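Q: Hi! First time doing this. I have a protein sequence and I read that you can turn it into a structure. Is that right? Here it is:
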Amino acid sequence: MNFIDTHTHLFTEQFDADRKEVVERAIAAGVYKMLLPNIDLESIGPMHELVQAFPENCHAMMGLHPCSVTENWEADLAVIKRNLDENDYCAVGEIGLDLYWDKSTLKYQEAAFVKQIEWAKEKRLPIAIHVREAFEETLAIIDRLNDENLTGVFHCFTGTVEQAQHIINYGGFKLGLGGVLTFKNSGLDKVIAEIDLNHLILETDSPYLAPTPFRGKRNESEYVTRIASKLAEVKNTSIETIAEVTSKNALELFTTVK
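A: Yes, that's right. Below is the predicted 3D structure, encoded as structure tokens:
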């Protein structure tokens, strides 16, 4: 079985002591592709180094995370754009809106989000969307900008059936499923039971949101198999089918990943 972890931050300091071993464990478990969403200007170097160390398995995205957006967002985005122009990436991400930590930066977040969406459309790259306590604000922006050139994933989807259908109706978007699917009282399993498997891709968001039974501990890409196992249970199908369909979905979205 071959799995794709479509969202993992294996370049962060939480893996400094054993990064090589973590990647090798994932590969040994069948997780043969790991997609790396950028966070901020400081993460670009470590992310590139990981891709250079595992060029067949690790694929970088380029973007500015909404929690890293400040009043200096235009200067930071100039660096992001230069990297997008000079290097190859599988997506523009991680981008989006986050009103959980700081509502005061919303106008900067929205401006940065829109600018990066425009770049993705120009470059025919998908976007990896982070959204936390800003679902309606995010949908309003995508509603306005969506066209045949915009594709992407709503990373770490935890919404309702109605919100899932709204996203699916865009035509070019997938729902990213992570460890929350395995949480006993999340209710996400009941939502996902209503969603066709062809709209779903797998992710870990390592080092965050580790699935059961590792909840509260450091997450890693190997654990995408745990999420796949839970999805197989929800969909009453085999884990082999989950691996096949979600990997196909991921490769259809991230078209530069080979």
